[in-house]
Amino acid sequence: MQIFNNNINIDEPIRIYAFIGPSGTGKSYRAQMVASENKINYIIDDGLLIKENDVICGVSAKKAPTKVETVRKAIFTNEEDRIEMKKAIKKYKPEAILILGTSDGMVDKITENLGLPKPEKRIYIQEVATETEMETAKRIRTIQGKHVIPVPTFEIKKDFSGYILDPLQIFKIKGKPYMSEKSIIRPTFSYLGNFTISDTVFRQIAEYLAKRSEPIYRVMRTRVESKPEGPNIYMEVSINYGYNILEVLREFKEKIKKEIEKLTTMNVQEVTIIAKEIHMQEDEKKND
Q: Which domain holds residue 229?
């Protein structure tokens, strides 16, 4: 058994690869491609441990409130972040990890803090991107404030409520098309501001779902309270007679949260559904 420092114990040595390039030149854009070419299933990028297309550990450094804190989280200076990541590495036992960094020194700091061996191979952005592509990436970063994380949008929305801009499905590596879904975000500290969605959108989605729910007769009242971390939704409904009220409310609450988060990428902080009355279909027939 090989034992690395910082209490990471693994049965086999971990192969560490580094993917290095200046900030904003497109490393995260191309991370999955580089990992795939080197038969690597795990990536460490900006505080996240990513297995193929799943975020399995960490909170992205791009969510940090300041650039200084972003760097600290990216190199695992914070003890809590460091311990969490080491536990995940020990749990998943990756054979190889691709670590992204802006310099050799940054990658070496990450491996040191996590108790991992030094990279056996270092890949530089210039090897997989042209000067024109890197300049384009820098321009997008500078002018639009957009950053990329090498996972699909739905995997990171829980960490970026209100900040996800749009997913990409195709880009080019030195002129060669490469298919992959990425998530573009605007970090918390961006001077360009936050991405927001009108309260009306949340209300309309919730009421539309209610109309399509057989146990719910009608929506009596809807209120949406928006907060920076996501909306709170309150609804009063009339339930058709014959259904288990508690079960209906629980299932509808889960459905609202799931569908709104899926459609808007915003985190729903709280959903409150109250049954204000029971609708008797026999009464409706008598009135007819």
A: 199-287
